[in-house]
Design goal:
There is one protein chain. The chain has 4 helices and 4 strands, in the order H-E-E-E-E-H-H-H. It is an alpha+beta fold and about 110 residues long. The protein has a single domain, classed as DNA repair protein Rad52/59/22 (Enolase-like, domain 1, 2-Layer Sandwich). The N and C termini lie close together (about 5 Å). About 5% of the residues have low confidence.
């Protein structure tokens, strides 16, 4: 999912010779517990910094949750959701052409 958003972002910016980079996210576990039905409920917060080749960057945070009988799958879903949310939020600071446009949200 995240790669499609970056591919669209890179495609949008190629005309201006910009390339999108994303720093390794900072991820924090906010919730990790089992519910009454035996499923794992896991929540994460992620902070991502998106930088263009010209040095302009924006940083933002996002949250994600995962619910699954498998603890590993719940963690995986929560991490993916948090990082994708943070990436989209950081990209939106670049304006309509990159992050605020509806097309980025359709792909991510």
């Amino acid at each position: 999912m995240v790669s499609n958003g970056f591919q669209l972002s890179n495609h949008q910016l190629c005309a201006g010779n910009y390339v999108l980079f994303c720093a390794l996210p900072i991820i924090i576990v906010k919730q990790c517990e089992k519910d009454d039905r035996g499923r794992w409920n896991i929540g994460y917060l992620a902070t991502v910094k998106v930088t263009l080749r010209n040095g302009v960057s924006h940083e933002d945070c996002g949250s994600g949750d995962g619910i699954n009988e498998s603890k590993v799958k719940a963690h995986e879903k929560a991490i993916k959701s948090a990082v994708t949310d943070a990436m989209k939020r950081a990209a939106r600071h670049f304006g309509e052409r990159l992050g605020n446009g509806k097309a980025l949200y359709d792909f991510c």
